[in-house]
Amino acid sequence: MTSDHLASRAAARSFLFSFIFIAAAPFLTLAAVAQGPELTLHDVLLEPTDAIVAGESWIVSLDGLEPGVAYELSLLDGSGALHGYLRLASDDQGHLGPEILWYQSGITGSDPAGDGLPGPGFQDLASAEAFLLSTSWSLELSRVGEDRAADLVGRFAIPVKPARTAFPCDARGRFRTSFEAGREPIYLAASGLPKGERFEAWTVADRDHWRVGDLLEDVSGWQGGSSVERFTASGEAVQIVGPIWPAPMQRPGRFDFVLREVTAVAAEPRLRRADRPGYSLEAAIVLREPSAPSIAASREIDIAGRQLGSYPHFEHLPAFLRSVPVAGAVDPADLRSAAPRDAAVFRWAAFHVVDDRSAAEWATNQALVDVTEVVEVRPIKAGTLEVTAGPIWTSPDPATRGPNRYDVVVDLGASRLGGPPQFDDQYTPGIDLIDGADREGFILVDDPSQPGPYAVGRTSYNFEDAVKLQYGAFADNNTDIRAVVAYPADADGEDVPVVSNDERFPLVVILHGNHAICNVGTGCSNNCAPASRIPNHEGYDYLLDLWASHGFIAVSVDGFDVTCKNNRYLERGALIIEHLQRWRKWNLPYFIDPVFGGRFRQRVQIQNIAVIGHSRGGEGAVAAEILNDAVGLGWNIRCVGAIAPTDQNTSNPPGGVPRKFVLGDVPLFNMMGSSDGDVINMQGARLFDRAAPAGREADKSQVFIYGANHNSWNTVWIDPNWRFGGDDGVGVDRISAEQQQLTGKVFLTSWIKAWCQGELEMLEFHRNRLNVPSLGDVRYYWSYESSQHVDVDDFQNGPADPTSNSLGGAVTALPAPEDFLESSFRAGAFDGSFFHDTDGLIIGWRQDTLYSTVLPQGSQDLSPYTHVALRIAVMHDNDKNPVLAAQRFGLNLVDTQGRAQRLEIDSEAFDPVPYPYPHPRTSWKTMLSSVRVPLRAFRQNNSELDLTQIQKIEITLPDTGLVAIDDIQFTR
Amino acid sequence: MKNVQTSPVSRRSGLCLALVLLVASSARAQSGRQEPSKLKQPQQLELTGWELKEVAFEEPHREIQGDGTVVLRPWGYQLIVSAKKFPIRALDPVVELGDYRLHHWEWVDDDRRDAIVYTFWNTDILRAERPFSVVYLGDETTRATFEEPLDPEKLRRLSKAQRERLAVPDIESGRIDSRDGGVVRGTLHLKESAAVHLAIWRTDGTWTLGPLVRADDEGHFEQRWPLIEQAEATALVRLKPGTAAPVTAMMTKDLPKGAEILDQK
Fold it and tell me: Could you give the ipTM of this predicted complex?
């Protein structure tokens, strides 16, 4: 939408407002309209309320809207003047909000930032209240469109009740929203307090959502310590309290305050229902850095992300999934606090999502062409750059296939008092905010389980008794080379040409595991007639077709001659390599190819290979790379995937490498089901734990899927038309075979697309930041380790000693926990519930416990890293852990100056820590999973934390519990 | 290190697990999400017998060593274990003889799933007192243990000519056949100069080492030792060369380091 258009519509609107009121169209009540839009007003705790409190921010949400439709919300007074405005799209449930429609009921004070720049709104609560209570208020809801009258959906009358509120002010009682830290004391102006009652004013770190039970920690004392202000209500209309925060004690950041009535019994420092936090979606007080320029030097910030259920309430992200909402938020920490000049001039923020442009393109073209349902418009709080975090693209569904790349621009807009927002619809460098000036702001990816752009050709090849396997203790003679193949084509069909362009495609090879090979007799006869052979390798057709559609030449190997036999893991790897050698020939420009007639000549990226295997085939896939590496075969295997793999090799590989396979420099993904009735001891976890050891560089990923069995990833193994198969799964909360195959589609496809097609954003699936909605309530838990990390504590080195970490720093846990030991997490260790191949920490506690691990000098600069991560598992202990309850913990960093994020990061906001799975044949399965927290969360809201001088990590373990911990890392 | 918790899942935890499973199963039944299991769940193996033999291979077996070198083995030992049925699984069925595991198995015949042959070279694992079980490694529900120990004396040997041609050494073994009237009778085969003593184990948990046992040319022995009447168990104990043996007839809590039990009864 252009600014001209917006302005002309605004002019028309001022007339229309009057018309509507004269016409006296019936008002919709807040909640009485059946089947229609339903407005909810919210108090500062975001609880529904029947009326707005004069002086507080007007927070609204709507239900019953048409899904995915753009709406305007206009707050009008009795004369039709516009005071609050939002332009947003409803979500797929027809819901919108809660959002701040009008900050502080329009109170800005005369100088909201204390920098001499005037506030455009009410000067104080008294003048605001007089107006607010004397006029009628209505919220006009309309669709965004050309025809205003036709677009009008309805109007809601909004009741307002007298003030009983408090807000920050200066020593003279003048309303303020922001201060320069350390320059002047901060007071509180309170109204409506009953005379003679005793109160406390707590100054606390900002939360977007206050909930009863949240920890209260006053920060207004010396060096951030507590100094709660206590006072007696005077009965005055407005009582000036304080100073609640003397100037010398201040430091930059975003803060709230909480008013609490003093009771006879000392109350817990946690929010009670009777307590009154001043603000929620906005900060009560913004403290700017003393040296902050009036306009921030850099306007390139992170904006796109997702809203979280608990603190820090928002996470900036690099990638999103088609159809899943993209949210936006502006963190003042990125702007070195609020910019007063902006705050005085700009009252509105318009969120544009535009096609990605390079820095050079932005330099020559600043026009903003939004690609979403609507350019979202939100108000800016006077004296700050506070903008409500919320959706900026409700239902992303671009016409072009992913990955699609976008930038986000917050176009700052102004307006005359009472008039509509006005924007220039241009990106103005140095003024407007941008996410993605020199790279993309975010990437929108398609669901990898959905077919890609290519039609799928199918073929197969079969060379009976073709080779003697080159590696392994058995070195089997007369091994068949047989496979089915899917590949990108112009049209679906058998033996059709490869797609008619000059593209070459990566090769992905998958190998099945141990299973009967013959549908008659005992199932294991290598003399089985071809017609009776069980086509184990055809059980992955659903994957092959999907991968081919995404631009892979996908090969599923029949391991007939290495199946139904002992061991043969190296042989399985050797078999995969035999197939690779054939593909190398078929790709050669000069090779006379009697099999395919040259169909694949120069069409294979023969040095861009993924190998995947299921069960023993998973170990075989790992073996292929072990052989490749040990013998120096020269294959460029970009990644390995293992589906419910074994870890049983007992043969010596060539090159003197260990019998227990240790994948070195190739990324490994291990996928396992908790309900596996065959590999019930989760052997894949051992492959994962040993992969990428110190000195080797590779990412590794693991997912543990509750309710998944062993067989269902292979459709032949569960097909009743073939003997010897079926559902092997055991335990509760089983998932269907279709759901299980969907996990394979999503997780394996994202893995190979990341490493073979360079779509590294696909790894966000493996970091638990992208999730396909079609997996519904399937519960799965990730471990992800980046090659770029430093181990703070891997609990491996030296004698078991829980009091020092891998960097040599001290470790403490206070008060002394009941269990505090380094232990093996291998099968049979501790309580017998582990299946890992690693050591870690066991900690069990019966009261709030603080675990601290110190970073020695030389290890305190976190600049190379983006996240702090650890692997953690709840352990079954019906004494310390509520059975089947997930665990959460607080996380913080402390710098060498003793500074920390003022609120602990809640682990649950980022990654779940589930209760162990109860397996009927192995008792509980305790499986570590990753919690990854972005380092920027610790800097959020201007915490001042210096990430170049971090002294220690603190983990707060609440109440009681028993957990296993491993691999505390800083990572990317 | 504090309060190291080493016990497996407690009885109380087990009861809790059962309760949780019951509740969860009930919830599952209500939700209707559970698919019926079509595959019979693995159960304890039904073992039917075993056979132990020396074998000469048609082609020497190639064993790749850890350093990459290859050792050719023209002969070896095979343990054939029979069961009602060995399921085809991702897990390997292994033989466990005490702490030793036999991994290297093949079907006796591709068309039979009731017998597995384990090939091995190290005769040290053959000790009659060791528990002899078969398990799909990692799945304890399948474990089955032979009541009869793996008695090395039941080894079916190659012919003398074959053994000489292949230079097969004797297996060191010993077996107690009877211990009546203070006399112990049995067989004993030693491959090197090692001392084998009788020993007794008392109910108070002490061992007493007895006299040296000497066998005739056929390997039979008959040793008198009145103390065996007081014993809970009688054992043939092999003392490796260099083992510092206690004075015989002295009671000790443990056998001396370097002592191995060949058989006990």
Answer: 0.83
